Amino acid sequence: MSAAVQTGAASVVEFLLTSPDLKTDPNVRDSEQHTPLHLVCGIPREELKFDHIRCTQLLLQHGADPAAVDEDGLTRTQL
pLDDT tens digits for 16-29? Predict the structure, then answer.
């Protein structure tokens, strides 16, 4: 999931979130306690593509928690 959101692979994110065999948790955390939403929202504005926005929409539609904090206590809006 992390690589998919960081590269803007919206179709992969959608597959991971909707596949009956996978049903990946949209709030899964990496070693620094970042969720996929933290990762996609941390992409610099000049590097954002439409597919990154689509990944954000998909994560939120499938239950990503916008109030989740990382190991530093930061939410996605504070990154």
Answer: 999 999 889 999 99
